[in-house]
Amino acid sequence: MKLTRRALLASGIAAMATPKFALAQAETIKIGVLHSLSGTMAISETTLKDTMLMLIEAQNAKGGLLGKQLEAVVVDPASDWPLFAEKARELLTVSKVDVMFGCWTSVSRKSVLPVIEELNGLLFYPVQYEGEESSKNVFYTGAAPNQQAIPAVDYYLNELGVTKFALLGTDYVYPRTTNNILEAYLISKGIPKEDIFVNYTPFGHSDWSKIVGDVVALGADGKKVGVISTINGDANIGFYKELAAAGVTADTLPVVAFSVGEEELSGLDTTNLAGHLAAWNYFMSADTPENAAFIAAWKAFIKDDKRVTNDPMEAHYIGFNMWVNAVTAAGTTEVNAVSDAMIGQKFPNLTGGMAEMLANHHLTKPVLIGEIRADGQFDIISQTEPVAGDAWTDFLPESAVLEADWKDLKCGMYNTETKTCVQLTSNY
Amino acid sequence: MRKTFLTRSPSVLIFLSLLALFTLTITLASQGYGAGLVSTSFVKTLGKTLCLCLAALAMDLVWGYAGILSLGHMAFFALGGYMIGMWLMYARTEEIVVASLANGDLPATAQEIGQGIVTQIFGVVGASDLPLIWGAAHSLPLQLALVVALPGLLALVFGWLAFRSRVTGVYLSILTQAMTLALALYLFQNDSGLRGNNGLSGLQNLPYVTASQDVVTLWFFWASAAALGLTYLMLAWIVAGKFGSVIRAIRDDEARVRFLGYSVESYKLFLFTLTAILSAIAGALYYPQAGIINPAELAPIASIYLAVWVAIGGRGRLYGAVIGAAFVSLLSSWFTGGRAPSIPLGFGTLNWVDWWQVLLGLSFVAVTLFAPKGIGGLFDRLAHVRAPDRKGAPLGPDDGSLQEREATE
Amino acid sequence: MRLVLACLLTLICALPLRAETAADILTANAELVTKASRQTIGPVIDALAASGDPAAALVLEAWADKRLGLRKSDGGFVLLTPDADGYALRDLAGADAGRAAKSEITELKPNAGVRGLIATALVQFTLSDPDPARRRAALESIAKDPKPEALAPLRASIALETDPALFAQKQRLERLLTLRFDPSSAERIKAINSFGADLGLDLRGALNPLLATTRIAVAGDPPADSNIARPLKTGRDLTDTEAYDLLVAAKLAPARLTLEAQRTALVANLSGGAVGGIALADLNTQTARDRAYTALETAGAVPQAATDDEATAALAAHRFYDIYTEADPAVTTAATAALKSIGQKVAAMQAADLALDAMSLASIYFLAAIGLAITFGVMGVINMAHGEFITMGAYTGYVVQLYVPDYTASILIALPLAFAVTFAAGVTMERLVIRHLYKRPLETLLATFGISIALQQILKNVFGTQARPLTSPAWLDGALSLNDVVQVSYIRIAIFVLALLFLTFFLWLMKRTRLGLEVRAVTQNPTMAASMGINPDRINMLTFGLGSGIAGIAGVAIGLFAKVTSELGTDYIVQSFMTVVVGGVGNIWGALAGATMIGGFQKVIEFLNPSNTLAAQTYMILFIILFIQIRPRGIIALRGRAAGD
What does the domain layout of chain B look like in residue ranges? Predict the structure, then answer.
């Protein structure tokens, strides 16, 4: 009887191991899509999986790449961070994908990093993040803090005349890092430390009355208060509802959010939120022909006229097209060749202008600031010239001396003071 | 003359030999030392599954045998992972920092190395000094001792408080769940000094080891198998003896055991602490294979899953726990891997990624309702073992299932 | 550098400003207007306001409302009125200028800063405007950005004000501006004292700037004309490091040697494998480096750095003060006194506000837990799927709003419908699963957990992973505000009332109805109850359905103030169980006590540690664990036979 069990397990092993042989001679170029389709992050990541499928389908319709068809290998890491590492290893060693597009949270990226560095894989990471990282094997197509947070604060300081800041965030590494950078930046701009109020809440927080009350009370010393929100995901809904209920308007107490886009607003009635702000590198309302075509293609692909587009989708759009061009330029999908060809790649943004892949594996992107409209879209009220993504922030002393350059220095963490490469592979 | 322990429990020998055979087969088929038939990522999955089996063993002892439905054992599991993770992270970072500073103009001072390590581990979100909790992280023996000591101590204190106030049954379950949640929330805080939501990562890269992952993975696979085998042996020995009889009696009627003069609380406390330590050891072996540990691993739901594995495998029998954990976690991994074929139905496609959780949930219900003995019950059926005929309505495993065969020995 | 450039730009552009009509001014500054920034647009807006063109106010208003556009064909400015498929156009004088499609026009989108400037410029036109709404907007604009220049026109407009509410508002604003900007100190003090212990945020906002201080370090006595807030003592008011930094900043002392500077100096003086007579290899401790540096100092190779002794001496030789930027001591004294009396009242009000927050949170916990208090507390069934019932209730609300667009009606339909849906779900579950497991409570936990994850995934598959909107009716928008400190949103009040209603309903049901009697009988002794002619099966089914139904209603309420996702219930399930356990099982008052305690305790911790809400939750749970050690049966424990397991 126990033999039965053994046999069952053995067949299980066989089932897990077989793909390796079946895929030995690939006629297609395989693209791994590593986005959670279940669990807490599915809310954001499923859209990106669909975006990738759309881009791959479009590329295949154009005749594929290097004369081969592209094939998407979709896996579900189920919002489980260790599973990201496992699935990445599986994609690279079992499915033998040539490139991966994936991850959303920083922790999932940190989970995948050691695996792709060990196996020399290639990952395109499409989400705005906290920076302080540059891996040889990752291309960061989302915004670094200086491409989102700093311009937004400049807007507060210069345009709105805000002199007192409330930094509200969910307690994880992106808000923590961003807020630390912003705090240092604000102090360098002459804002005293006691005029910076910081609060961290858990994921999915819903009881906002006290925090909103605290923020309103900040105005008691006669300074203009502005809120910088790095609140993540669902928690925003309760937060904005409470703001609206407390009668906080964008005129009296503006909120600029870094994690609230078109998708998040679709879960809200935005009539009371009109005028609050968000900073991104892309808004669906951008008025360019490329964007109109992209939106039309997306709506056709997803077969839903109400679906919106957002910033990480644009990041995948740029990243994928740059990769296609780099592969064409290199004539191979071999990772090192493609990586070299990636640096310096240019591709038009959906919001106008050109995105360029820098030697530190970040993009140059324009920064857009939008005001929420009653229909859940954004009025773009400010668009900067393209800003070069900075892997190591210049506003904190310990990372100001660091630099990433994969072209000449061949190092992701180069100390310009001691002129040494601190580490070649990431220390996660 | 009494028979020896092993001859009395043939299942132990069968289990151990199967485990040895399994380990050998995988080793021979592996990429590290064998024919390369089985991918390293799958060996990792198997190694992790063995660790989960080990945790399930502990859970079975505390729940299946002693009737304490603890919803906190995955917290101990994760704590074990954190303890070993701290050393792994510290030592690896130290290696990098020392190597990097060696290129500098001046030889590095101890402070500079320490500072370098802190900056690397915490980036820009930590304090400039190493938090107190990392005090022992520089030393492998100390941190290994902590793997056992910290979860053990936590279980001891928590168990002492809970059992002393006679918190039992579902109340204890809820209390342990609260403990797990509190611990998870604590670790989620960036200020707790364990890197908050990001947790400890890159744990698969062992410091001072240059061997490839193909090989390292096998080392851990062997260690997990050895730990599982030894624990199985030890637990089988424990439950076969008088101690085993007492804890089963506690499960079946706690008050009666107390009136017979046994110190029920001490038995429970010992068991709770022992299983917490076993879970922690399992965790310490698991996370270097998983590569990352973060507070989400402590979510109360993980501990419930552990209970579910044991229930599906069959409570009150050690091999049941192992089968349950292995079966469900491997199946889960297969279904979420996207390799399970979608089933086209007339009105749409059944996509397993979407529906696997539903199937899993409903199968819990089915197992609880129709097969309270779990998969292990099938073995009874095959071996023609029947529950003793006690007359009256069947009361289920919680209400007195000490079997006659066990009672006579 | 950028600022200088910006200023230059402004100056250059300011040259052609003196034009006659609004249209001329806009056209002359087209570049500035289309890319308007608060930094540079000021002169243009001022010019428009001062132009005397009657159309100027119209243009400014349109611009602020994002109704000003640029015709792409000729670059001319037009006023826009959006309609179905484009814009109806008017020229800047207000005359009709035809139509244009959306693509032919660039809409100007001035940012909030520019809109603020426009509003300030419009004040002079609108402070005495016939339309009260405009007058109110003007007042708000002044209040938002108080300026001395606003004082005179404001005073002039008070006498003309006819609307009593606006009259009061104008008077208040006038006093607020007086206390900050009036040239006469006596007038200012009079204005300060006229408020008393007023709780308005605007008053504190006006008073606090009067008390702004700067921190100075001086060698001897402070400058004679300075208005000293307080002398500072090192060690008590500021640390030695802070004090020394102040000295360094004031160039009264040399900077201390940082470790990096020392390192750089040592490297620079490296010669022949040694520095200052110490071999390079030995420089791996801080003491060795210090010795090497001292040796270099002695040799004069590096500049002297302040030693600890010198730093201490420098600190002793200087005094530190906080100095008011406001020069008149009488004003600062009056402001301090006013703020002090306000502060006491604010503290009391804050306590009241905290109590309200706590009550609101408690009512939410209570509402989420009340269904559990029935199924778990009364029947002893652990229902892990309770959270999913809450979620189902919330989704019911969402679905109803899809079909019934009127929010009030939809909520009125959604509440009973949510009850019906989850009642049905509860009864089904009880019939199919739970009734087989009454004797195995721990296994109910597992089976219902299975149902919970299945339900959650099904909800995800059906409704998607995105959060869904559930909007409260307009009459629940906004907040009940007693003053600027104490306020609570209507939706929270509604939830509180709902919780009270259910408490009453539950008490009535259990104590006053046949069903309640039977439930209590079955709970205490099912066999005996059965022999008295009660059908325990039916009672169990109904009770479970009732508990589940209430969870559904709770779901609608929670969805109204937070989010509606498939994970909504998961957030409340552990908390709800703890509420019931802490309060005491088997007793509705217990659940109430538990919810009150947990809500209250959490708010107190949040108050003590406002920057970390996560920590508050952690400590709250720790507290619960300890509390259960002390009272294992909860706050309100059943006694006697009913307490038996």
Answer: 5-301+316-321
Residues A195 and A239 in one domain: yes
Amino acid residing at A184: A
Chain B: residue nearest A6 by CA? B18
A196 and A239 share a domain?
A: yes
Rounded mean pLDDT, C143-165: 84
Give the closest of B167, B179, B189 to C615, CB-based.
B189
Q: Which candidate, C603, C599, C596, places its Cα nearest to that of C636? A: C596
Query: How many A×B Cβ pairs under 8 Å?
Result: 168
Q: What is the pLDDT of residues B174-233, one digit of tens each?
A: 889 889 999 998 998 888 888 888 889 889 888 888 888 889 999 999 999 999 999 999
Per the CB < 8 A criterion, the answer to whether B311 and B324 are in contact is yes
For A127, list phi and psi in degrees, rounded to 5: -115, 150
The answer, yes or no, to whether residue C70 has pLDDT greater than 80, is yes
Once rounded to an integer, what is the mean pLDDT over residues B149-155? 95
Give the number of other Cβ atoms within 10 Å of residue C331's Cβ: 21
Q: What percent of chain C has pLDDT over 70?
A: 96
Per the prediction, chain C carries an average pLDDT of 84
Pair (A254, A318) in one structural domain: no
What ipTM was predicted for this assembly? 0.83
Please, which pLDDT band fits residue A50 given cuts at 50, 70 and 90? very high
Check whether residue A83 and residue A206 sit in a common domain: no
Q: What is the DSSP string of A128-166?
A: --------TTEEE-S--GGGTHHHHHHHIIIII---EEE
Smallest CA–CA distance, residue A251 to chain C, in Å, is 7
Name the residue among B107, B161, B368 with its Cβ closest to that of C280.
Answer: B107
Total domains in chain A come to 2
Closest CA to C550 of C393, C435, C399: C393
CATH 1.10.3470 fits domain C346-643: yes
**Residue type (1 letter), A250:** A
Contact assignment for B124 to A17 by CB distance below 8 Å: no
Check C443 against B173: CB less than 8 A apart: no
- Chain A residues 308-367 with a CB less than 8 Å from chain C: none
- Within this chain, do residues A196 and A317 fall inside the same structural domain, yes or no? no
Chain C residue numbers with beta carbons less than 8 Å from the beta carbon of B342 are none
The domain in which residue A325 lies consists of: 17-144+293-365
Q: CA angle B309-B315-B319, nearest 5°?
A: 80
Cα–Cα distance for residue pair C422/B373, rounded to 1 Å: 31
Structure confidence at residue B404 (pLDDT)? 41
CATH of the domain at A222: 3.40.50.2300
Is any Cβ of chain C less than 8 angstroms from the Cβ of A82? no
In total, the C-beta contacts within 8 angstroms joining chain A to chain C are 166
Q: Which parts of C488-564 fold into alpha helices (H)?
A: 490-512, 514-524, 526-531, 536-561
Are A131 and A181 found together in one domain? no
SS3 category, A345: coil
Q: How confident is the model at residue C586 (pLDDT cuts 50, 70, 90)?
A: confident
d(CA B240, CA B232): 12
Instruction: Mark which residues 165-224 of A lie under 8 Å from C by CB.
Output: 171, 197-202, 204-207, 209-211, 213-214, 216-217, 219-223
Q: Which residues of B touch C451 (CB under 8 A)?
A: 361-362, 365
pLDDT at B163 over 60: yes
The pLDDT tens digits of the residues spanning C333-379 come to: 888 888 898 888 889 998 999 999 999 999 999 988 888 888 887 77
Same domain for A254 and A328: no
Measure the CA–CA gap between A365 and A322, rounded to whole angstroms.
14
> What does the domain layout of chain C look like in residue ranges?
2-117, 127-210, 257-305, 346-643
Continuous segment of H or E residues that includes residue A53: helix A42-61
Q: What is the pLDDT of residue C556?
A: 92
